[in-house]
Each structure stands twice: as C-alpha cells, then as structure tokens.
Amino acid sequence: xxxxxxxxxxxxxxxxxxxxxxxxxxKSSGTSDKxxxxxxxxxxxxxxxxxxxxxxxxxxxxxANASRQPIHAAFYDYRTALLAKGTGMNHIDxxxxxxxxxxxxxxxxxxxxxSADKVNRFVAQLKDEGRSPRTIGAYLQAIKGFTxxxxxxxxxxxxxxxxxxxxxxxxxxxxxxxxxxxxxxxWLDAVTRKREMRxxxxxxxxxxxxxLAIQTGLRSGEIRSLTRGKLHLTSNPPFVMAxxxxxxxxxxxxxxxxxxxARELQLHVGRKLKGALVxxxxxxxxxxxxxxxxLEAARQAWLQTKDDPQERLEADESDFLQSVDSDGERIDFHxxxxxxxxxxxxxxxxxxxxxxxxxxxxxxxxLDRYGHLFPGSxxxxxxxxxxxxxxxxxxxxxxxxxQISLCSIGVSTPKKLSSHNAS
Length: 423
Hints:
Layout: E1 3-6, E2 13-18, E3 24-28, H1 34-52, H2 58-66, H3 71-85, H4 89-106, H5 116-128, H6 133-152, H7 182-194, H8 203-216, H9 220-224, E4 231-232, E5 239-242, E6 253-256, H10 259-268, H11 287-303, H12 309-317, H13 335-346, H14 351-358, H15 363-370, H16 377-383, H17 394-408, H18 419-422
Antiparallel strand pairs: 1-2, 2-3, 4-5, 5-6
C-alpha cells in the first residue's frame, strides 16, 4: 500500500511505494495538496502492479521514456561515445556539423521526432541547391550513424532511417577527376621548384608535397597530420606512416616512397622536432587553388617553348597541364591520389597491389574505380578465344559428319573407324 508523508519543514508530500522489482521507492509528488498527493500515490502503485502482471511492458516503457530525451543531449552522449572509441576529432567535428544542420532544418526536438520523411525532404533541398551526391551522402552517413547508435543503446525501438540509402556517386558525378601524365608531372615539378613562396610554402616545399601525394596516394588530410617522427627516411626502402586517427579507414598506413624524395625530405625536416609537422599546409579549402596556380605557371612555361606559330596554336588548344580539360575533367589535390593509382596500373602492378597502396577495404572498389585503366585486358581476353573459331580441317570435319550420319540411320561405325578397336 502506497503511503504519503511530509518531511520536517518540507512543502511537498512524498510518496513511498514498492515498484515492480519489489524495491521500495520514495519520490516527491510535487504537490502540497494531500488529496492530490494520494491520487498520485495510488497511480504509481497501480502502475507497479500492472508492470508486475505484464499488462505494462517495462522495456517498452523505458524505450518510450528514452525516446523523449532532447535530441541535442542525445547527440552529446553520441559525441562522447565517439571520443571514447578513439574516433579522430576531424571526423567527429564533421559529423557534428552535419547532424546539427539536419536537426535545425527538420526541427527535431526529441529523439522520437526523427523520421525518414523529414530527412528525405532535407536531402531534396540539398539536391535543389545543386549539392553533389558525395556531399549528400556525407550528410546521410552522419545522421544514419547517429540513429544506429541510438537504436543499439536502447534509446529507440527501431532505426527510423534504416531504409534511406546514399545516392550513387558514379551515376551522378559532379566532379570527374583526371590524372597527370608523366610529362605533365615533369613540367609541374621543375617549374614549381623555381617559383616563389605561395600559400605559406616555398616552391620546393610544394613540389615535395605534390611528389609525396603521388608516390603514396595519401589524402591531403592524411599528409596534414604527418610529423617528423612518422618519416622513416633511412629505412630500406624508405616509408612514411600515417596515424590511424588521421586515415579515412581508421587504420595506420605505411606508404613507401622513392629514395630521392626521402633524401629531400630528410633535408627539409632536419632541424624540426620529432613531433613537428612535416608541412605547414594552407587551409584545406585553398589546397586546390595552390595546385591550380602551379599548374598554370607550368603550362605557361611550357607554352613559351613553342616558337613555331602552328605548333604554338596547337599547344594553346591542347589540354596539357590544364586544370580543367576539354571533357570537363579536372585536376585538384585529390587528383594526385588518382595519379598514384593510374601510374601504378601503367607500371604493370597487379590489382591486389594497387588495392593495398590505395588502402581500399574491398578490391571491388579498386576495380570499380580504376578497372577501366588496365590496358588491353578485354581485347586480350577476346583474342584468346581465337583458337576456338579455327577450322579443324576438311578431312576431320567430313569424317565426323560421316560418323554422325551413319549413327542417325542405325548403321554401326566400321571397326577401322573405331578408336577403341584400333587401340
């Protein structure tokens, strides 16, 4: 039987009752009216009895209570869980900015407000603004990761966004990147080394940066995190290590480099402390501008070597060292990673090696992204079928046809034609 009482000097009545677990509970009724407090006490005792008999499912009740948690408080818990897991701060900050943008646009207040329809309307708005499938996919990945966590931790009974899928980046690609040819790289490297300081980096530093990106396939964010202690330049062969917290797949990456670049880097970091950054890179948003300026300088230097008017006209119309070619394919900093994979293919590296260097989790991704660059594989496969279409000789064909015709009218094959008897 529930009882009510006031504590000495207290304003409100307290209720004492036994819950469905058999545990004695004491809680303020929040009222100074005795009759109202008694009604509250009776309700709490009745609810406990209904839970004991299974009329009220305590688990569903707990889920319902959890789903009424303010969504910003729930996301703070999610952020704390990501930190405890060891997720990199860049990833956490990017996730937070995208999830909070969705929450603001959809007016989600408590966890239970999250719905696929409202998120779909947000996605439609992004499409109307001309945002790329990759950007839209990043927003969906952020919010879906949040709702998966809510479901696993008992704050939602089911994932409301489980049916949503990211748009294909292949069928609607806004940016199609191209790679640098070997000759383009030679011009870019030579001219950049002679250029002045730009974006806080000397020409030689920028040339080393571009060379490192091509040789390792490291992304700009991964290079940004490299410290002197992560350079193993005297090893044979030399390599650099990218921390798991900085890589996209959250695994440490050992990427090998050429000895010539290793010697240059050794001179570059010679006086730096072990924990000092290898490169003082500009803001991520200006990295493409830096590369485009160096490309344009290299192109102008190349054009100046064309003295013949006709040759100069043809050079002006060419795509050589253009940041955007005639097909709309462009070069940005990520194109240096694309160049790494392409040069590996042209050098004859097998697809498994390329997957390892590019650090793709699935070889299917490597084949989907770069399979069309493997030279002549389809033509060679079809050429190997040629033997199947070669005639076997008139006498052999006639002999085979005679055997078939004799069998079809019920005449046994002569013994001299039977290979079994002949043997």
